[in-house]
Each structure stands twice: as C-alpha cells, then as structure tokens.
Amino acid sequence: MISKEAIPIEIANLKEKGIRITWSDQHQAVYPHLYLRENCRCASCIHEWSGERLIPPGSIPANIAPVHIEAVGHYAISIHWSDGHDTGIYPFDFLKEICPCESCIKERATERHR
Q1: Residues in CB range of 63: below 8 A, 6 or more apart
Q2: pTM
Q3: CATH of domain 8-53+62-112
Q4: CA neighbor of 13 nearest in space, from 61, 65, 53
Q5: Rg (CA), the chain
C-alpha cells in the first residue's frame, strides 16, 4: 500500500501498458490507460452534483492513450488523451486511492471489511 505521505518521484508512459508511477516510498504501480481515462473525475465525466458518470460505459476506445502528460503544481498530473479529452486532473491522493496493483487492491478490500 502506498503511504499517505508518498509523492511521485517518477512518472513514465509505458506506451501500451499504461502509466507507471514510482512513489517516494518505493511503491511502484502501472495504471492502465483505459483505467485512468474511465476514472477521470472532471466535470465533463462526472456530474458535479449527483456524482453520476456522464460517459456511457464502453464509449471510451479500448486503445485510448495519453498524448501529453504534465504536472499540475505539486499535487496532480493532467493527461491529454487521444480521444480529445483534456480537462481531467488526477490528484496524487486520488491516484494513491485507485492504485491498481494487487497489494493495494487487497488492502482496500481488507479495509472495507473492517
């Protein structure tokens, strides 16, 4: 599990595999492109008041890829996607919460059952 204080020390686009983030606590995870795009929380993707998803399931191309990744201050990254979407900001705390690695998934499942 990623420590709450961890910050990214490296962010790399692995082309077809996803975006790899190495955290300052040495935790490393690969976030698949489609997984990140589907989890975008911007106002174009999630209704501001209801929290309802505005993007229909299956509407994001399976081969979605980042065109450009840039830092947003010291707290997030912005990803410009191949489908033209460019308003999503992914805060580091959110990326920690949705880490797709096996150990983080198990840890979240354990926390839910407490």
Answers
A1: 82
A2: 0.91
A3: 3.30.2020.30
A4: 65
A5: 14
